[in-house]
Fold this protein.
Amino acid sequence: MCTNENNRNHSLRSINNTHSSFVRFVNTTSRNVGVYWIDYQGQAVQYKVLSYNDHLDVNTFETHPWIFVDEETRDRTKHRTMDRIFFVVLTIGAISLPVSRGELYTALADMEELLETESVLIDTLHGFIHAQEERLATLKRNVEDYAREHEEASRNIQQYLSNPINAYLLVKRLTTDWKRIEELITEDVGKAFVSNITNSRNDLKFPTDEDLNGAAVALMRLQDTYKLDTAHVARGVLNGVQYSTGLSAGDCFELGRQSYNNADYYHTVLWMQEAMDRLQEEHNRTTTTKPDILEYLAFSTYMQGNVARALSMTNELLELVPTHQRALGNRAYYQEEMQKKITQQRRKRGEDGQEEAIPADQPFTVAEKKIKTWEELTERERYEMLCRGEVTLPADVQKNLKCRYVERGIPFLKIAPFKEEEAFLDPRIVIYHDVIYDEEIDTVKRMAQPRFKRATVQNYKTGEVEIAHYRISKSAWLQEYEHPHVKAVSRRVEDLTSLTVDTAEELQVVNYGIGGHYEPHFDFARREEKNAFKSLGTGNRIATVLYYMSDVEQGGGTVFTKINLALWPRKGSAAFWFNLKPNGEGDYRTRHAACPVLTGSKWVANKWLHERGQEFLHPCNLENQTPDPDSGLY
């Protein structure tokens, strides 16, 4: 058996990992015990084998579940250590646990189906309430009938019972009638409704805990990127526009709890404080309690470095719940931490214990926050400023940008030329307006949605595609032969770019989810990315065409972080740029990102064109151009 040896010194205890930062497990059995931890894919990974009296110190701040494996008996048991439950799975080898991957939050198109699920649940709940009301109405009628008979009998008991019919009815009421009443009282009318919901899970989409966490993280991302005030968001106001009803104390608490589970203590404090403010207004209209909020606030405040504030909140919590064991232990821990700091900061002089005075000629100064130049800003800061629309092109750049009609010598375009708008000159980035039509957009959306999968990125080391937290969207790939509209949209790229699409990738259709975004990246493969596009055999991505298939109310821009350029989605338009310089080297100035969608739904379709087949359409420049330096800092 594995036992827990608690350190006698005061130790900090987190909320969901409820023991001291390190817990020691000792194998007191005579058999070897294998120790496994469960990774994020639900696979058991062997960590260590404990022989007799051997021990393992487990960091309880880690969120991985631990599994203990008796390598001899193979029996399965459950072991409880204090208020944490550990499963002792007695088997040998890796253990595979089924994991449900929730990705509904990554595409708003998929989330539309959740409203259908909610509609079914509402109807089911109405049915349950109606059944309950009918049951209660029957009980109410029966009790009124019984009370009326009982009152009549009480007036003259002997006379009432002397009537054989009354005597019979009294006995009947207390036998068969009462059994029926007992059945009504104990009847579980909800079981059938829950069974219906369970059976509907194969036909309806239900979000998972991963979806809940992903939606919460997306809201935090929007809050940070667009500098949204917590109180405004809680009131349903986004960038000064009222979009929805406000959040309850419980809603804010759950956002804080999700942030806490992600070790995001900054947002935990913001949303727990908002939950506290709303708790004062809601009084008895919520199940969230002040002690719950204080516990999260205190620990998260400590994790942000404010020990004194954490101690104050813990004391407030203990005034409400004096026997709160975790708070009692944490208070002692905070007090020790504060005492250590005081001891370290105290500079003594002599034996009198007096603190060293600050020299009189040493002035107190307030450090002024230096305003960074554009070059000093990190890429993340530039990216967010561009997304907020705080950066515009200089006037001397804008004055050289032109709009024109272009017909490329194509007969049809002489009648209906493309409307070209220059967005930047070097590198040349242009926007073509009204180049994809509503019926085409409808077809592309309709065909793509059933095929949507979580959008991926290419691992530059292996060449394999994989999902990434910095790209939140879903995508599907459409081929030209599948529909005339898909072929028309793909082939129109040749007229837009004067390049061939014979070696281009299929048309990729993307829908962005809650706070959907794609952080700064290159479309082309850099020199060290040897395996990128290797399987295609068509060379590097020479150019990108990005169709915008929806208007976006707020956010969702395409920003180029090296050249301070932001493009804003406009339904029917398309952006075009070359990813490679004329000599085939990657143009690092085309590094770009998709800003988080604040409100609205963003649909795009892109066509990536490759080098192969462009030899005569876009000849290489033999001029020896210096490659852009790749320091890894953008």
